[in-house]
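Summary of Year 1 activities. Much of the first year was spent building the evaluation harness for sequence design. The harness presents a backbone, in tokenized form, and records the residue chosen at every position. We chose the following record to illustrate the format because it has been used consistently in internal testing since the harness was completed.
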């Protein structure tokens, strides 16, 4: 597998593409109601149902983190800062929404959110790699 060494600088490209697109899509659902999403008011109501105080504030904050953070990760602009914010969003999803349902995604568990958190932390620690908007 030594021949793959020359491609290690590009390893973060699929991580950025997957995490960026998924985060932007989920943020778009929450912010604008795109792709059968609920929009900000619906998301705030959802969070309120989970006991969040200041649910509309949290809905705006988490939606912007997902949408803007996803765009920044996708392009590689300030990718580490965006990954830090997406990691925060992942922790919120896991521990305040999905934890009580257990691991399994089929039971609304934290499985999917854990995978996204893993991608975010990987990007945070490794940086955006090659093929970024800034060309680094």
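For this record, the design step produced the sequence shown next.
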């Amino acid at each position: 597998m030594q021949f793959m060494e020359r491609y290690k600088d590009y390893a973060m490209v699929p991580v950025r593409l997957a995490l960026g697109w998924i985060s932007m899509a989920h943020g778009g659902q929450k912010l604008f109601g795109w792709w059968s999403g609920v929009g900000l008011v619906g998301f705030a109501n959802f969070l309120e149902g989970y006991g969040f105080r200041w649910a509309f504030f949290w809905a705006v904050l988490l939606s912007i983190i997902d949408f803007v953070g996803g765009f920044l990760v996708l392009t590689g602009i300030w990718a580490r800062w965006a990954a830090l914010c997406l990691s925060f969003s992942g922790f919120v999803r896991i521990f305040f929404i999905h934890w009580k349902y257990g691991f399994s995604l089929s039971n609304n568990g934290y499985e999917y959110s854990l995978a996204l958190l893993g991608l975010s932390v990987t990007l945070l620690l490794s940086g955006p790699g090659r093929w970024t908007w800034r060309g680094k």
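Helices lie at 12-32, 39-49, 55-75, 79-98, 111-126. Quantitative recovery figures across the full test set are reported in Table 2.
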